[in-house]
Design goal:
Shape: globular
Strand content: 15-25%
Mean pLDDT: 85
Distance between the termini: 26 Å
Number of helices: 8
Radius of gyration: 18 Å
Low-confidence stretches: 1-12
Length: 222
């Protein structure tokens, strides 16, 4: 797992990005990398995103974190290109609070233009809480992103109550099934049928599926 640390800006402590490979089960290879953040502080130690993200979301810092992550990914893409180690795309978590803003797309494009990186190298990952947020501006931003070449994913399906009818209103590329749904999938036919139903639903609305928690060869085969 590759990590890159920032020097920290403003009141933000040093942040690390981790890059986790995402496998295509048909190609049996890593095709993308999903990023996650953590604070690595010399005084208090490692602080996981479950702790600091909710705090950052109470202010504009959550938007700063998102833009910083995109810029760091652009830097990684360019450095890999110099070494002829191509990366297909990065899956970057975006706060609902950020994607609700009218200036979200211009801010992101300014960073990509600065580094000479094309939008198709990014997939913006949004949690299902998007379904309870300001729909009009989010739909406009998602449409603008996809027209520019970005991919968009709604993640953590199943973590909380989700109305599939609401989900179908969002024109995205992927939906992500939360790991908690498949915990007993090897033993439970009921769980297998439920996951199959979600995948079938995704196919009907022409959306691909990502599944978290595939930690054994047996689950991958299933």
């Amino acid at each position: 797992m590759e990590q890159k640390k920032s020097n920290g800006t403003g009141r933000l402590r040093p942040i690390e990005l981790s890059f986790q490979p995402v496998f295509d089960i048909h190609l049996n290879m890593a095709i993308d990398y999903e990023i996650s953040m953590r604070i690595n502080d010399k005084t208090v130690g490692v602080i996981l995103p479950d702790i600091f993200i909710p705090i950052a979301e109470k202010s504009s810092q959550i938007c700063q974190l998102g833009l910083w992550a995109i810029e760091e990914c652009c830097d990684v893409i360019k450095r890999c290109e110099e070494r002829e180690a191509d990366i297909n795309s990065f899956i970057v978590w975006v706060s609902v609070k950020h994607i609700c803003k009218k200036n979200f797309v211009p801010q992101v494009m300014k960073i990509l233009d600065k580094h000479g990186v094309k939008p198709d190298r990014f997939c913006f990952n949004i949690t299902q809480s998007i379904l309870e947020a300001d729909k009009e501006q989010i739909l406009a931003n998602i449409k603008a992103c996809r027209e520019l070449g970005f991919k968009v994913s709604i993640d953590d399906l199943g973590l909380e109550y989700t109305s599939l009818s609401n989900l179908s209103h969002y024109d995205v590329d992927y939906i992500g099934i939360h790991a908690s749904i498949i915990e007993d999938i090897m033993e439970s036919e009921r769980t297998q049928n439920m996951v199959q139903g979600l995948i079938d639903f995704a196919k009907k609305i022409e959306v691909e599926t990502r599944v978290d928690g595939i930690d054994t060869a047996e689950k991958a085969e299933l």
